Amino acid sequence: MSLFVSPKCCSLSTPLHKQRFPLTPTSVSVSRNGNWVFLRPKSTAGGGDGDGDGGGGGSSSSSSSALAPTRVLSFLCPLLKLFSEGDPSRERNFALEAATSSLSTLARLPWGSRSLSEGFSDSEATVSDPPKPLQLFEFEACPFCRRVREAMTELDLSSEVYPCPKGSKRHREMVRQFGGKELFPFLIDPNAGISMYESGDIVKYLFKQYGKGRSPSTGLLESTLLTGWVPTILRAGRGMTLWEKARVEPPSKKLELFSYENNPYSRIVREALCELELPYILRNVGTGSRRTKLLLDISGYEKVPYLIDPNTGAQIGDYKKILAYLFQTYSTTAV
């Protein structure tokens, strides 16, 4: 397995699955409350620099700046797969899980922990939820996908997340047919009718469109090349590859996850959602989030992660129980 990275994108090289999808180059099928519908964008941005597989040559400066992390991650990917012990549904050493995820959190502090709406007046507050949900195609282990999720935490934005692990049966093909190449992250904003690759461009767009004049916190963009890969290494590649026993068909309704990017326990749950390729609605609840009261009303407390599965009626607040539930409910061996 090889992982290509650029300063803005990730791409796990993998043969495309042979399954056909009802897509055209100018439309993408996304789920709306269990129904698959077509979204036709007005324009596509960020797809022209050719970073990653399937594109043309990027700029020389971009290529040279990407060289070091590309070599490191390309070398480490086979080791990550080895140390991840393969089957993510197996019983885990949760003390070790918590330790490695907590160290990952420390490596990325302060990014992805706090909403910039904290301390805003009502008139200054970031628009938490656009009229139509943003759609983010990503995979948990990608440092550049992490950069976008950190920005969404700062902006207090919810989004629909379509995990795209290596071996993806659905979402990678959607990205390829819609955008022309398998690069991640890939964002669709149906409110503006645009879609784009390139994590740096996505972050700048989100702040321009939904940040009420605010800028990304200091170091958010620049730090990814320095420490953005640390959680990928410490977590031994969790959230990178599709579990072989994951169900092929998605659930009829999306799961909902209350989370924030740099929470160590939410990270473990998002890894599982990625390995199962389960689309879900991400409700960011960083410190100072305007969504905290909603979480309190629903769960009775302010802790994350908190999972809601409208397909079964399950509502679970403990990450260990969430993991067990997900792998038991959404495996091919589930009764």
Mean pLDDT: 80
Please indicate the percent range of residues in DSSP E strands (runs of 2 or more): 15-25%
Number of helices: 10
Rg, nearest Å? 18 Å
Helix content: 25-40%
The number of domains is 1
What does this protein look like?
With 335 residues, the protein is an alpha+beta fold. It has one domain (3-85, 94-329). 34% of the residues lie in helices and 16% in strands. It has 10 helices and 13 strands. It has helices spanning 60-83, 94-108, 143-155, 171-179, 199-210, 224-227, 230-234, 264-275, 292-299, 319-329, and strands spanning 3-5, 10-12, 28-32, 35-39, 43-45, 134-138, 159-163, 186-189, 194-196, 255-259, 280-284, 306-309, 314-316. The strands form 3 sheets. Strands 5-9-8-6-7-11-10-12-13 form a 9-stranded mixed sheet, sandwiched between helices. The protein has a two-stranded antiparallel ribbon with strand order 1-2. The longest helix has 24 residues, at 60-83.
Question: What labels describe this entry?
Answer:
single chain, 335 residues, alpha+beta, two-stranded antiparallel sheet, disordered N terminus
What layout of secondary structure does this protein have?
Layout (H helix, E strand, L loop, with lengths): L2 E3 L4 E3 L15 E5 L2 E5 L3 E3 L14 H24 L10 H15 L25 E5 L4 H13 L3 E5 L7 H9 L6 E4 L4 E3 L2 H12 L13 H4 L2 H5 L20 E5 L4 H12 L4 E5 L7 H8 L6 E4 L4 E3 L2 H11 L6
Parallel strand pairs: 5-9, 6-7, 10-11
Antiparallel strand pairs: 1-2, 3-4, 6-8, 7-11, 8-9, 10-12, 12-13
